[in-house]
């Protein structure tokens, strides 16, 4: 359990920083879940043959990985549960989308700007952690007193 606390427990922050991490988690987690993941999950069978196979594992497997990231990891980020692991999974998914699907383009047709912005947010959460207003804090709280 101590090893888990090292990775999942939030670092001590101010209340403002923890509040900002909560807003970021809710904003990104809910947006990726509702705007991207839920549709993929609900229409999985329709999309599975047409989904881009950008890493060579097949269209259905690629879609399954995207659904796992956007639905389950999006929910985990929202709750602040195993946040760093979920954010890492989402960051990798957004990096693959930005690089392979959108060909690193930030402007023009088929721009990857949204994937790029999600990537920045999920990398930030991976580095900063979930903050004290999270399930991770309740489960893996470090024994040190958090600052006000």
Would you give an account of this structure?
- It is a single chain.
- It is globular and about 45 Å long.
- The longest helix has 28 residues.
- It has one domain.
- The two termini are 26 Å apart.
- Helix 5 packs antiparallel against helix 6.
- Helix content is 68%, strand content 0%.
- It has 7 helices and no strands.
- The chain is mainly alpha-helical.
Measured distance between first and last alpha carbons: 26 Å
What is the H/E string? Answer: HHHHHHH
Largest sheet: none
Uncertain ranges: none
Overall outline: globular
Helix content: 55-70%
What fraction of the residues are assigned to beta strands by DSSP? under 5%
The averaged pLDDT comes out at 92
**Count of domain modules:** 1
Radius of gyration: 16 Å
Q: What is the count of β-strands? A: 0
- Individual helix count: 7
Based on secondary structure, the structural category is: mainly alpha
List key phrases describing it.
mainly alpha; 148 residues; globular; single chain
Give me the secondary-structure topology.
Blueprint: H1 2-8, H2 15-42, H3 44-47, H4 59-79, H5 83-101, H6 113-128, H7 135-140
Helix pairs in contact: 2-4, 2-6, 4-5, 5-6
